[in-house]
Amino acid sequence: MDGEAAKSGETGSNITEFSVSEISGQLKRLVEDTFGRVRVRGEIAGYRGPHSSGHMYFVLKDERARIEAVVWRGVAARLKYRPEEGMEVIATGKLSTYPGTSKYQIIIDQLEPAGAGALMALLEERKKKLGAEGLFAPERKQLIPFLPKVVGVVTSPTGSVIRDILHRLTDRFPLHVVVWPVRVQGETSGNEVAAAIRGFNHLGPEGPFPVPDVIIVARGGGSIEDLWGFNDEAIVRAAAESAIPTISAVGHETDWTLIDLAADLRAPTPTAAAEMAVPIKADLEAGIADLAARLKSGLRRKLDAATTELRSASRGLPSADSLFALKRQHLDQISGNLDHGLVFSVQGKRFELQQVAGKLGPSLLTQPIERRRQTLEFAGNQLGRNMRRRLETAWSRLAEYRLRPSSLAAAIELANGRLDHLGKTMRTAHRIRMETAASRLEQASRLLVSYSHQRTLERGFALVRKPDGGLVSRAAQSHPADVYDLQFADGSVKVSRVANEGDDKKASSAASAASDPKQKTPQPPRKKPSAGAATAQTDLFGD
Predict the structure, then answer these.
(1) Residue 320 in 3-state DSSP?
(2) Looking at residue 529, what is its pLDDT?
(3) What pTM was computed for the model?
């Protein structure tokens, strides 16, 4: 008691002492218990986007105060409206403190814009941002196919919208419809619709579902909050990037969303989208029937006119008999003259043959043969003279190139000089090689002597060899029954060892017998060592 009084007297006060952590913990519990769950209205400031951990941090402020706000990663993934800088919102959550900075904060689990005015302001800001990127440009719009084979519909499978679309398509032009079911309202509607548009674009020609020629994104009417999912940036980008033409049919005629600006065509209602996607089959059939009738009537009129023109032209042409009469007469005249012409031609050829036959005789053959024989004899004589001249020329050229002793002597002298030079070079190279080899041999000999085990033995070491001559480098390699050769620098000694417990007992009994004079132990005869080396057996591992 006196110690406590003394302590109080030293501090000068009896106030309870707390640590910083205790104060922070009590304040945290006080704030959380007092306020619990609250709704706070304010403007977002200092928004830094999702952190690497997935959490969101920003500040809610008004004209007089500000409060730190945090959205955990799990809640951030479920938010219907993403926080943006300057956006006025109503945040629902619980108040808490962060001891690390001594600040209080609100942990948000729900976030919504503060009224329709805030949503419209956010919508206009997003519209300007995406428009600046060119996502709403008219030149990006695609033409809707006149008669698609497959229509893809992105909508809820349980609403009245899909029934209206299917009913109108069936009435106008029945075709293949592929429905991609999505949620058209709620926190995940934007991502689901964007994934559906991209999914239709990624279908392959050989996949389980046919690739649609046009996509209808449809939803019934509602408030701006109900249609807010179709203002999502992901849907706008998916519609703008779609290679398949898209028709937006979200809400009623007075409703509009950002997908209406990004789509290739906007329909006031889902039913109108079905009407824009396909024509009326009955009208097409009637049009085709009308065109077919007109084509048939035109062909008939064309054929009638051509027949009339042909008949008019045929009246001005002469008859076939008058056209071929002169040719027939000419043919008859030619055929009559043909017989007389053949007779005259044969007679003329016969006369020419008789004239030629009179000129034929042996002289016609002998004269050419005689001329050929004379030509051959003349050519043979010319060949003999030419051969003799060629041989004489060859002998004269051979005599010019004939070898002489003087030319051989000069070549031999030159070769002897080269041989002497090569001999001197070889002897010099042999001498240098022998000197180099001798030097290397001397170095190797010195290394061999320095590395020889004999030098090691001279320094007091010994080699232990097995009976078969092998070296013993470990004690575990030895056996009691073996006799080993212990080699020193000046000779070798035969030794044995005692390794197990039984051998030790024998050694101890032998020692006791030696100490007792009454007990005699037979001693093996000892041989004198030879003059060359010590051969007496000793115990290598004994005492």
Answers:
(1) helix
(2) 43
(3) 0.43
